[in-house]
Each structure stands twice: as C-alpha cells, then as structure tokens.
C-alpha cells in the first residue's frame, strides 16, 4: 500500500542513468538534459519504506521524528509540512512542536532536552532559520540536540564526521542529496574541475570538502577527488564567471535567483542547483511557482549536459535523505 | 637573559612589513622579496617568553610539554629536538618519551592516558608519522589526547574548532603560522584568488577553510574571504598550472620538491611554502641543506612579490605557534 502511495505521490519522471548507455545516446538526449530529483528520491524512499516496515515489525514501534518550529515563517511551515507528508508516506510517526515567535532561549533548550530524554523520539529537527532574537544562538541550540537523534547532521559531532576518513554515519541531508544526484549521473569526479558557490557551514563548505577529498572506495570515485573552487559573496563577479566557465560541474548553494546564467556555463557541464529562494515576479505569482533556484534554468538547460530543476531537483532528494538518516539513527539506538 | 638567548638564536633578518609602506617602495624591494619566518617567530616567542615568566611567577610551576616519539625516524627526531630547543629557550619544561618502533597500540594509549592524568603536564605532542603498524590508528591515538592538552590542535574537537564562527582557542600550529605570515604581509585577502595545493586533514584542508571563510573581525580581512581552489594529487598538472598562474596567493603543502615552478607563478604573486621534504641531490648533501620545500625557490623568487624559504620560513613560525598554544592551554587549565 505504501509503495502505491509513493508512486502516486511522485509524478512519473525519467531517471537520467537511462541515458548514459553510450556517449552517442547522451548527445541524442540533449533535449532531455534535466536531472530530476524525484526518481532518485523515490528510490531512496522505497528503501526507507521497507526499512521502516521491518523496524516496526521488529520493535513494535514506529520511528518517531519531531520537528520544532519557532514562529510563523511561511517558508519554514511549508518545509515542515513537506517533510511531514513524505515521512508519513514512508510510515514514520511525525510530530510538530510549534513555539511562539517570542519563546525564550531556556524554553527552547527545555523542549530539546525533553525530546532528547524521551526514548520514543528517534529524530529531532530544529527548523531553521530561527527568529532574529535567537539566531545568534543557533549553534548552541543545535548542539543541545543529542547527536544520535540529529537527523540533520548539524551538531558539531555529526557535522564534523563528513571529514573523517571512514564513512560518516549521518551526513547532512542536502550534502547526501548532491551525492545521490552525482551517483545518478555516474561520471567519476576525479580530476574534474568543480565550482561550489556558497561557503555556508551546513551546505557549501561540507559539499566542497566532500567533493575534494581523496577517494576511499571505488564508489566514492564518483563523488570525490575533484579540484574544487569555493566561490562566495566576496568573489568578484568576473572571477566567478571565469571559474564557472571552466568548470565541469557547478554546484550553487546561495539562494539568489539567476545567479548562474547561460554565459557562465561551459557546454556539456553539469549544473546542480541547491539554492532556493522566493520569486515575486508576476510570472511566478500567476503560475504559483514561487520557489526558484540559483540557476537561470530555461537558459542554462540549453547548454548544460545535466541541470537540476527547482523545485523537483535536489530538494526532493534532501527530504528523502533526512528520512533515511532517521531510520539509520533509530536502528542504531536499538542496537 | 631569555631575550638575549632568543636574539642570539635567530639570525638577524628583515621583517617584510618594513617594505610595505608604499607600492613604489615594494617594487623597489623586489630583490628583497623573501618572506622570512624567523622575525615573525621571534616576535611570537618573545611574547611567549613573557607569558611563561608570568605563568611561573603566578603558579610556581614551569609549563610542561611532553613529546611522544615512536621509533627511530630521523626526521621526527630532528623535529622533536628542534621543538625542545625552542621550548627550553622560552622557559618551558620539555620532556621526550621514546617508544621503541614495535610498541603495541595499548602501550601507546597507556602512555597518553598517563600524561592526560598527570596534572603537571600541560601539553602533549604525538610526533607523526607513526610507524607503519600503527599508522592506520593515528586518529584513534590522537583522539586519546585530552583536548585541553592538545597543543597540536589535532584532536577531533580542536581540529573542528577552526570552522566555528567564534575564534578557535587552539589552532593547528601550521595553520596559525600561515596566518601569521599573511598578517605580516598585511594585504587583505578578501576577493583574492588563492590556490591551496594539498588537501591533508591537518594542513591543506584547514588552511583552505580558514582562507575562504567569511570575515569575522577587521583583522580577519587579512586571512579570510578569499576565493580558494583546493588542488591535490588528482588535479591534472595542466590544470594545476592554470589555477596557479591565475592565483594572487599560492600555498603549497604537499612535500614534493620543485612542484611549484617559475612558469606557474603570476608576476607579483605571494607564494607560501608549507611543504617539507628531504633532498638527496649532490648539492643538498654537500651544502648540508637536506630539507627543501615544494617551491623552486631560486626561480620563483625572481617573479613572486613574496616567497617564503624552506628552511627559515613557515616552519620556524609553526614551532613558535605550538609553544603559544601550550601557554594558552596551560593558563586555561589553571583558570
């Protein structure tokens, strides 16, 4: 029943690996050069669904994920609703704790501690960003979450783990999502030129580190060993264009619409759009497509070999990776 | 007396900031474009000496640093002797524990635990590399060191700290040394193109992160905000040349002689050599200059604005930063 529900949940989309049989065929599929996240997410969620079923049968308890939502930020509410819908499709018990905008730091810490101590809770999400009066203490709140319930991989201990030589247990979902997209493309990164735009602690920086590190396993050839350039707001725009125009792969994680334009992309490059921001153009409002990525999608898809759309690209896979983390952590705590 | 000893210890060298009064003067000083580490180290060690004196007066106890040396690696012995000589000049109580090559992992852990529990010990150095039969467990041994005695900043907790938004308490000495060299040059990095060659956990990667992060303080303008490219053994040599030739600053931390050649350096660039390896050429043996860096120094100094020598460059400052870490940690433990 779950399987059917998930298939119904995702529209039928074509996985890009089907186009990777021969180079000739790749060239022929240049019109179909959109790398959809939904088939990738579907595969992960199907696996999660089976794992969830096994977990429930074995432990007579549904894996429980709790999201803490502070204030009334519309985007945050939307993200949490999205996570809830997907988690419940998989079979996860999902709860939301709503805190008013003016919650005190100590009250927020108390909520986190209660969830840490509640043995029935397997994963905790602190939905970011926090309201302005709490934003400076974000790291402190995150580090209050037990690392074995940290499905977002944001705590110091988990956030550090992607840099270890052994495979990390919990990877930041968005980093995992980019990894899954690259595995889907199936082209070794070793020796390739990659530009990561954005240097944030939870997205740009861990992505750059993952992609540049040395190869540990045969599979990791596809997601590491690249020459990585970290660009950001202080990179002059001419330099950004110069680096991008040379890159085999561009990954943008900034949140600025149309930052990556046609003229910045080398023919045949792979462009992965991790950015998300609200668009207020008339077209966006009329078509109700409010969320846009960093990439000028309609133009860039004319030149790139693969480009991910927003929505329907990395975002969909990110939520699937979050659920995957929950199941990993839930099983780990039972062992 | 200590002051005199340190002045005697270092040869008289000219600090590069003296040449930074005007651009005209900089151009005029193109023959003097060697960025010596010794004056920088001398300044740090003079401060350390005063701090050490104050510490001894206040606590009636000399800060104690213990190095664990496993096996008979000649380079390791030389490094430890060098650290000992400088530490003792400053007034630090320095001890070496020699373990035989075939020490068991549990014996090594026991040694570290004894030093952790010995209240008179303020800092522990585990001299790397370990012998082959222990090398795979290096991280495990390092993480056995109490983070408040970890003068090398190698433990997971300290190694992570350079990524925090607040200033880290203990920075990896070589990272700190490069920072000091850049502060000495005094040119803001923001928006500049930097190439870091090498992606090692304790050198290349933390350097790349430090230089690319957002600016926290006015002073950090000089050591962060750059567009950083991480190159490494999988970067094809033509690409390496391409990135380097564009770079305002090249930092090489590989350990391969003459990796950075004249034709890879842009006129007026800054070249910081963190690499160190043994040279077996006849010239090196005859002149007893066995240790060389990654940079083809004699050639590169003709084109670079500043280039650091090996020996006498970053290495000298690294040891000074190690001693500075010891004093920080010793004071912290007394508070």
UniProtKB/TrEMBL annotation, chains A, B:
Keywords: Hydrolase, Multifunctional enzyme, NADP, One-carbon metabolism, Oxidoreductase. Residues 177-333 form the Tetrahydrofolate dehydrogenase/cyclohydrolase NAD(P)-binding domain. GO terms for molecular function: methenyltetrahydrofolate cyclohydrolase activity; methylenetetrahydrofolate dehydrogenase (NADP+) activity. It catalyses: (6R)-5,10-methenyltetrahydrofolate + H2O = (6R)-10-formyltetrahydrofolate + H(+). Residues 35-152 form the Tetrahydrofolate dehydrogenase/cyclohydrolase catalytic domain. Pathway: One-carbon metabolism; tetrahydrofolate interconversion. InterPro entries: Aminoacid_DH-like_N_sf, NAD(P)-bd_dom_sf, THF_DH/CycHdrlase, THF_DH/CycHdrlase_cat_dom, THF_DH/CycHdrlase_NAD-bd_dom. GO terms for cellular component: cytosol. GO terms for biological process: tetrahydrofolate interconversion. Pfam families: THF_DHG_CYH (PF00763), THF_DHG_CYH_C (PF02882). Homodimer. PANTHER family: C-1-TETRAHYDROFOLATE SYNTHASE, CYTOPLASMIC, C-1-TETRAHYDROFOLATE SYNTHASE, CYTOPLASMIC-RELATED. This is Methenyltetrahydrofolate cyclohydrolase.
